[in-house]
Design goal:
alpha/beta; Rossmann fold; 2 domains; six-stranded mixed sheet; disordered C terminus
Length: 303
Amino acid sequence: MSELVIETTALHKEFRSRRGLRVAVQDLDLAVPAGGVHGFLGPNGSGKTTTIRMLLGLARATHGEMRLFGQPVPRLLPSVIDRVGAVVESPKFSPHFTGRQNLTLLARTIGAPTSQVDAAVETVGLTGRDQDRFKSYSLGMKQRLAIAATLLKQPDLLILDEPTNGLDPAGIREIRETIRDLGASGVTVLLSSHILAEVQQVCTSATIIGNGRMLASGQVDELVGASTAYRVGAPDPDAARRVLTEAGFSVGDGLLVDTDRPAEVTRALGAAGIWLTELTPVRRDLEAVFLELTAGTELGGDR
């Protein structure tokens, strides 16, 4: 069994407000194995940011247990915090300094060698743009610089909270590639996001939460599961739909047939003299899984 970099047991967080007691995180059991990218997924208001703030000692849990690298936190957080990098809120950099100057100043502050600046710039793909002033950076470049800043101390765990918020498609792609490369390099990345389809492209494992509760957790391939639907193409779609419906298949829009028996689809249509032009498996994605898990529930609460 892989070492767990992050582990929570019955983690619970309540807030008191004018409207009374509000539960942000409800008895959450979270297990993040070492290596790769672990998606921490759920809609806005599901408790992701609150959980991250508790792990980093920025918020106090109502009750429950938390461990980073096997050490109980927040009690022993000082002993492991140097192994953790995090981008939780918008980073503060000097707008008139270049990206490299900002990183160099930060490196001096934490006692990191200059060579780490070079390595961080290269890792996040800012080589050639590190001499540009921060104020000229796009949102995607600013996020990459923020990630570079966390890499100066060579963390074993990198926590990113909604790193693609507000980015255009090009910026999202830049951050996605950076995260994928970091996970492949041996860094454990906890990636919090509500954009499930986007995250699926970089995550090796994932935990899905809603209303502060864990709904599912495991390897992405296991969560998505095998395809149980096929898209059918035929010269006469209406006739094909009629034949398949009469044969007992559930047929959706676009001739999407819910079945794990594609050979039976071929046999039923062939017997009716209808020859297929397409029979393509349709794989579920994390978003579809999430919608199934949260069907009939109302999401809300704190981030």
